[in-house]
Amino acid sequence: MKTIYICTDSITGIFSAVHEAWKDRRREGASGIAIRGSVEPELFCEYREIGENEGKAEAVERMILTNLGRNVYRHIYYAALSRDEEKGEAILGTLLAARKLRQPRRIMEHLGSPAVEKVFELSRSVGNEAHLLTGFVRFRELENGILFSDITPKNQVLPCLGAHFQERFPMENWMIRDKNRGMFVVHEAGKRWVLVQEDPGVRGDEGFLHLSDQEETMQALWREFCDTIAIRERENPRCQRTHLPLRFRPNMTEFAGECGIDNFAK
């Protein structure tokens, strides 16, 4: 009978489920991982709920880094951040496939394996979105001096952005909110970034978003600058969408309001 380990949609949750599946040492195909809330019951399957366990997750992380290397760990980590509901199954399948290789550190070269191919594609999708957002994130200065930004990504890319902007702004207080998931990455000046879950009871309350006077002035100047340098005669919407996809624009300062900056990027 196949055993399905049901876990939370988080790095810790998925790695905890991998730990349990690995400990049981079942043959390939005899176990699987499903994300809580996306389980479709199947015949002849046993379902086990797995809670988040930091110790087990850290053990899996050490195992991957030690036996498969940092490159493979990066692919698996990025795949775990994907919105794909089958990511847990692909991650477990990749690890089980690596166990049978003489050179397990080269597992990501074995794209003939459906699980490995899936992990590779998910990793690339998350990495591409995170890379784009490092350029499209727009911070606003609040009254209290904190730099704040909203994003609406497809995947859970906050950990990727946290690492990036910690290097760029190590001595600034800043926050980035994932509006789709109600999560924040928060950085206090001189410290390491952390992930924070938004309180469902106050979710959607924008009362804390009071911009500083200087911020409102700078936003107006920035929009005027973008509008001024635009050349209407050379408007090219198709090329513009290549450089600035439509889904990123609602959170970008230069596309806010009624300034009509539709040909900023050509």
TrEMBL record:
InterPro entries: DNA_repair_put (IPR023875), DUF4130 (IPR025404)
Source organism superkingdom: Bacteria
Short name of one Pfam family: DUF4130
Domain DUF4130: 89-254
Protein name: TIGR03915 family putative DNA repair protein
UniProt organism field: Faecalicatena fissicatena
Lineage, top ranks: Bacteria, Bacillati, Bacillota, Clostridia, Lachnospirales
